[in-house]
Structure prediction request, 117 residues.
Amino acid sequence: MRLAIIHAVVLLVLTLIGVGTAGAAEPDGSRRQALVAMVRQDCGSCHGLTLKGGLGPALLPEALAGKPTASLIATVLSGRPGTAMPGWSRFVSEAEAAWIIDQLRRGFPSLDAGGRR
Ligand code: HEC
Prediction:
């Protein structure tokens, strides 16, 4: 009896952790739209409205090719000290920064597409 309860609790906790991680990995539809708007507008003010570069370098797939994902995510979250690139950790989670880099690598969605390509 006691073992069954412990078993049930462990399963419940594992399920909750699993659900939590899945939720964190992929921002949902409306959050995706907000992130696309943020990247196009806020990031675009330095990286160019078409992300081809401006004050900041291009963020197009070919520009990011070969650069380590972890360091690109860290750049989005913490910025690059000594450069104009600010950190965004107050506005995006690590999972969302990872999503942004993933989208940049595939060719970033347009605002009209609402987070879809
Ligand atoms: C105020 C200007 C500014 C804004 C706003 C800005 N960046 Fe940057 N960003 C830069 C600069 C400048 C660099 C280059 C830093 C360096 O010299 O290493 C950079 C570098 C980067 C890099 C690394 C590129 C590479 O090739 O290594 C990424 C990724 C990046 N920015 C993403 C973003 C994202 C995503 C946003 C919005 C959430 C953003 N940036 C907003 C100025 C900006």
In short: Residues 39, 42-43, 45-47, 55-57, 59, 63, 67, 72, 75-76, 80, 83-86, 88, 100 surround heme C (CB under 6 Å). The radius of gyration is 18 Å. Residues 80 and 86 are 7 Å apart (CA to CA).
